[in-house]
Amino acid sequence: MTEVRSNATRIWLLHAAVIVLLLAGNFLLPEYHRGMFSRALVLATYAMGYNLLFGYTGLLSLGHAMFFAAGMYGAGLPVYHLGWDVPLVFATGIAAAGLLSLAVGVLALRTTGVAFMIVTMMFAQIFFLATLYFTTWTRGEEGLVLQPTTRAIEFAGNTISLSDPSTRYLVALTLFAIVLLVSLRLVKSSFGRTLVAIRENEERVRMLGYNVFATKLLAVVFSGLVCGAAGAAYGLLFGYVGSGFASSQYSILALLYVLLGGAATTLGPLVGTLFMFYVIDYTSGLTSAYLLLVGVVLIILILFFPKGLLGTIREKWLPWLP
Amino acid sequence: MAAVIPLIQTRALTRQFGGLKAVDNVDFNLESGKIHAIIGPNGAGKTTFVSLLSGRLLPDSGTILFDGQDITTMPAHKRVQVGIAYTFQITSVFANLSVYDNVALPVQRRLLQRGRVDPGALHQSVFEVLDRVGMADHAHSKAGSLSYGHQRLLEVAMGLALQPRLLILDEPTQGLSDGEIDTFIELVREIARDATVLLIEHNMQVVMALADRITVMNNGKILAEGTPSEIRANAAVQEAYLGGGDV
Q1: Cα separation, B61 vs B13, whole angstroms
Q2: Is A322 part of any domain?
Q3: Residue A37: CA atoms inside 13 Å, Cβ hemisphere, count?
Q4: Partner A, chain B 51-110, Cβ-Cβ below 8 Å
Q5: Is A12 within the bounds of a domain?
């Protein structure tokens, strides 16, 4: 049992070290890279939400952009139109995504496998089209720009501006760290074990006395809440809310980040997101046909790391990675 | 004899697949605290019948009572919660998870029913179950890497971990070696001290060694029922199933 305990210590140390390193990044990274990291941290949070459902529960959704965008619009619309405070709209963003994921979950979970992928994709498409249809409020693809003055928090007489690069980085990191630690706790819990078991053999889980539908629904809602928090944070930190974030491209990005980093690994989404950010950043500096290079890099990666970077590392060298 | 409520009671239970009546109008009583075996040729409807009991399938007509309570339309996961555990004919342990996790799943389900899952209690119960089937040494192996015999044992351990009132074993000894079968017989005897066991089995040696009562099914119907010696002596059974004494 000492082995189990030392693994637990190792796991906590690793996650703490990642968070400390990222914190140091705020003071050490050059301005340009700090900006990149701020965005990557928020999108990695989004990918972690996706990973809960796809990696751990084994439900492949092709419509998670709707949860990200629901968080973003749920926060952005009241700021833009009603002038609500930042903490309040962060909550409304999360609530919007939570409600949407509950509704979509109840309907989509009646299907499995390929049908589930298609149904989630269709719901996301409806959401995307709705953001275009209600253009009076959303301004469609052009989107809403949230002015820096509306993105400030009054706190004990001080004004904390979310448009300040350092604040932005630290807020993004705080959100990322909270979600990382919560998901680590979750996947190590009884609930996490049940999710993985559902991924492995749903029928067997049912015959062990679990209400599989309810458990999966809980996973969808949890995933939706995390993605919604990421979407709300993205809108508030970077001051822009547009329908592009609800498009299918963003659903695919979450899948891509998770697959590259390693599905069902807690740190995989971060690794996958940063990897994609920097591959695109580097190759787009070389040529305008950078997507071609990105494609080649991805193919090479999948050849040598078929289970994603951390997934393959776990399989070959570090079996204790959560 | 005193009138006790049977643990399981079915009335006119019927399930069809297309034109085939896999289970045809079956009235069946299962007494509490016994080992009851169901035998019969392939396609006799044994697995369909226990699938109806466990809730994996729903009947077309008829009723099922568990300890006097009507469970005919109760979903499978709720039946497990009231005390009916089913172990699969085709081994279906979670191959990619550790043996520990395989057993932790039913244990935490049971603990959850009584409130929250305490990690200490979970850990202790998992090892109690593993000790009982003699697999504590394998706790941290991947279930898929175990030998077939050990996977069958694990399957039973998962059923045991639920502490069921009724444990349904669907052909537990299929594919096991003679030595493994002896261990298995001992294990089932021990299980039967706390739970009622309903056993589907092809191996007549196992049935004769374990069963207090035997039900013979053929073409979806109950052909005969009785003690092992009564079944041995039954001419109809001889003809339909035992094939004239090559038992």
Answers
A1: 6
A2: no
A3: 24
A4: 54, 56, 75-78, 80-81, 86, 88, 92-97, 101, 104-106, 108-110
A5: yes
What is the gyration radius of the CA atoms in chain B, in angstroms?
18
Q: Which domain holds residue A32?
A: 2-316
Q: What confidence category does residue B247 fall into, taking pLDDT thresholds of 50, 70 and 90?
A: very low
Which chain B residue shows the shortest CA-CA distance from A195?
B105
Count the residues in chain B. 247
Banded model confidence at residue B53, pLDDT cuts 50, 70, 90: very high
For chain A, give me the number of helices (H) and strands (E)? 14, 4
- Tens of pLDDT along A210-242? 999 999 999 999 999 999 999 999 999 999 999
How many beta-carbon pairs under 8 angstroms link A with B? 58
Q: Encode B141-175: b = buried (16+ Cβ within 10 Å), e = exposed.
A: ebbeebeebbbbbbbbbbbbbbbbbbbbbbbbbee
In a domain, A246, yes or no: yes
Other residues' Cβ atoms within 10 Å of the Cβ of residue B205: 14
Cα gap A223→A279, rounded to integer Å = 27
According to CATH, the topology of domain B35-54+75-242 is Rossmann fold (3.40.50)
A210–B109 CB contact, under 8 Å = yes
* pTM for this entry: 0.92
Assign B72 a pLDDT band (cuts: 50, 70, 90): very high
Q: How confident is the model at residue B246 (pLDDT cuts 50, 70, 90)?
A: very low
> Is residue A208 within 8 Å of B92, Cβ to Cβ?
no
Nearest to A211 among B77, B96, B105 (CB): B77
The verdict on A204 touching B (C-beta cutoff 8 Å) is yes
Please provide residue B33's backbone torsions phi and psi, each rounded to the nearest 5 degrees: 80, 5
ipTM of the complex model: 0.89
- Among A193, A204, A211, select the one facing B104 at the smallest CB separation: A193
Residue with tokens 């077309």: B60
* Residues from chain A contacting residue B109 (CB–CB below 8 Å): 208-210
Q: Low-confidence residues of chain A, pLDDT below 70?
A: 1-5
**Minimal Cβ distance to A207: which of B54, B95, B110:** B54
Please count the structural domains in chain A. 1
